[in-house]
Automatic annotation (TrEMBL):
Keywords: DNA-binding, Nucleus. SMART domains: SANT (SM00717). Residues 316-326 have a biased composition (Acidic residues). Residues 291-339 are annotated as: Disordered. Residues 94-147 form the HTH myb-type domain. Transmembrane segments: none annotated. Residues 300-311, 329-339 have a biased composition (Polar residues). Its main location: nucleus. This is Uncharacterized protein. Residues 94-143, 146-207 form the Myb-like domain. It is found in: Nucleus. It comes from the Eukaryota.
Length: 339
């Protein structure tokens, strides 16, 4: 069904709820990207098509013309809906993809295009010379409401307002405070003074963790690093792009957000010399050895004569928290989902 029926997000959610449909959503892994490229190349060879023929098929506005193509390509990736594959492949193959940092002149062009066309991103893309998704994300994350938007330190009043809004959208509706939220709505309810990414990061990486830690700001420890490495090791993935960061916490270890866990992992990974040339398995062998012994409790006394080596944990503690976009590959399921 997933490879043959075009369903939007609402329809997929309904199918999960009423029929136990199981599907993946979120960022595609490096392995999935490789599977898609292989499937597209196999289709091209089987149909004696050129690269231009494939590009025309991918970007045609007549989606029905490429029905067989999209069904075959979608079948190459497990549990991905055809609609998600369609949009992902179009982003991957877009000729304007990966153009680098936006310059002021492009921002001005985007503002003018949005003022004239509204949020018709495909038409805006043609005017600005960037992909539709790039234009949409640049507008929503950086330019929309820029005159109203604040940056820097959050006041206590802002934190309380954000906590109230998120609580209204989650806990007061019978959901967990970690439930997914449309952060654009949260930003709007804050009067646009903070952007959706600002709200998301402030909540998931700061306020939510403090609430879980009984009001005090938690500190990343050697034990946290130990748990993270061994949880990732237990997944037996071939690449860290396959990790669903939202599924790592459990009932006994749930203070840290998925965003924080991904960032901490990246820092530990980068602490290994030559990590760029290593496979995920080779990297895990090194980190698993470093974390072979359970660290002592945080309140255990340290020997004054024992030197503290500069290990992965201390590198994590000293590393600035760069804002990296979180991608997950969450699997939507219900208890009654079929095997």
């Amino acid at each position: 069904m997933l490879a043959n029926v075009w369903m939007n997000a609402s329809k997929l959610a309904e199918m999960v709820r009423t029929q136990g449909l199981v599907y993946k959503k979120g960022k595609f892994s490096a392995i999935e990207d490789a599977q898609l490229r292989t499937a597209i190349e196999n289709f091209r060879v089987a149909k004696s098509m050129t690269d231009n023929d494939i590009a025309n098929l991918i970007f045609t506005k007549d989606r029905g013309r490429g029905e067989a193509f999209w069904q075959e390509v979608t079948s190459s990736v497990h549990l991905r809906p055809i609609t998600a594959v369609y949009h992902h492949v179009r982003r991957l193959w877009h000729p304007m993809r990966g153009q680098g940092k936006w310059v002021p002149a492009e921002d001005d062009s985007l503002r003018e295009a949005v003022a004239y066309l509204g949020q018709q991103w495909e038409k805006i893309s043609e005017r600005v010379g960037r992909s539709a998704s790039d234009c949409r994300d640049r507008w929503r994350n950086h330019l929309e409401g820029q005159d109203l938007r604040k940056s820097g330190h959050w006041t206590k009043e802002e934190e309380e307002e954000l906590t109230r809004i998120v609580t209204e959208l989650t806990v007061l509706q019978g959901k967990e405070m970690d439930s997914e939220i449309f952060w654009g709505s949260v930003s709007h309810r804050m009067g646009g003074r903070r952007g959706r990414q600002q709200c998301r990061i402030k909540w998931t990486d700061s306020l939510c963790t403090q609430i879980k830690n009984e009001g005090s700001k938690p500190r990343w420890s050697q034990l946290d690093a130990y748990i993270l490495v061994h949880k990732i090791d237990s997944l037996k993935v071939n690449d860290d792009s396959e990790i669903d960061w939202k599924k790592l916490p459990d009932e006994h270890w749930n203070i840290w957000s998925a965003h924080t866990l991904q960032r901490r992992w990246l820092t530990m990974k980068r602490s290994v010399k030559g990590y760029e040339d290593m496979s995920h398995g080779e990297l895990m062998d090194i980190l698993r050895t470093k974390k072979a012994t359970t660290p002592p409790p945080q309140n255990a006394p340290r020997s004054r004569t024992q030197k503290q080596p500069r290990s992965a944990e201390t590198i994590v503690d000293s590393d600035p928290e760069e804002e990296e976009e979180l991608g997950s590959s969450a699997v939507q399921r219900t208890q009654s989902a079929p095997a």
